[in-house]
Amino acid sequence: MSENVEQTYNAKKYRTPDGVPADIVMFTLTKRERKTVTKTLPLRELKVMLIRRKKWPCAGMWALPGGFCQEDESIYDAATRELKEETGVDGGHLEYLGVYSTPGRDPRGWIISHAFFALVEEWMLEQRQASDDAGEVGLFTLQEALEELELAFDHRDIIKDAYLRIQQQMLQTTIARQFLPRHFTLSELYQVIQTVVPEFKEPNFIRKITSTRSRQGILKEVRDEAGNPVSSNQYSQRPAQLYMFTDHEPLLSIYT
Ligand SMILES: O=P(O)(O)OC[C@H]1O[C@@H](O)[C@H](O)[C@@H]1O
Hints:
Number of domains: 2
Largest sheet: 7 strands, mixed
CATH superfamily of the largest domain: Nucleoside Triphosphate Pyrophosphohydrolase
Low-confidence stretches: none
Bound molecules: 5-O-phosphono-beta-D-ribofuranose
Shape: globular
Number of helices: 6
Radius of gyration: 22 Å
CATH architecture of the largest domain: Alpha-Beta Complex
Mean pLDDT: 90
Distance between the termini: 49 Å
């Protein structure tokens, strides 16, 4: 912009949005040990965290944690802050999902929301709390959130999109690591993938994940200081080898 244009430019001439909030779809996998005679994997369930709104608009309705971005922060910082303020969650994996701008989505005016999704381990929810402007906080299954609850604004659409995104990522990237301990068995990994993508069925999972060339290098066996393989019988009668993710992210193709 030339100096002359800069001096005469008037930002007020242009209509700007009435607010730019960040909304966060926060997923976690809950894990409950089963009381069975034989050792078996714990029960894992995918849940989404919602807050019950206290004030207008949509007072009393369940909604995503979120709030308005301030002038001195990035939208990413606003998402991190809102998540912490409204739910007590500090940390975890936070990623951009998309922009939601359908006219009329918020009765207060022209309000464009930027949505994020967060993958949080269950222990991180321990200090969860609802702040003053958020009411109760609850963890819901995807079925409850999408089919049974009355949700505020366009939050049902945002949750649907976020669910689809994490299902795709679960099959194409190593985000399963966000829901697993550092060391895990391949049966646990398979269970985590299936919890997020129930349609995923691969009878030869263990053989494929350890031998298919395109997958090689994403996992490695856990070994002790002497170099011996480390196994666990926490969830099985016979000891099972423990694995961990490496930093390698393969570029996968649907055509091969
Ligand atoms: O909770 P307050 O601060 O009232 O407003 C933020 C909400 O307003 C909506 O457009 C957004 O989707 C966001 O959830």
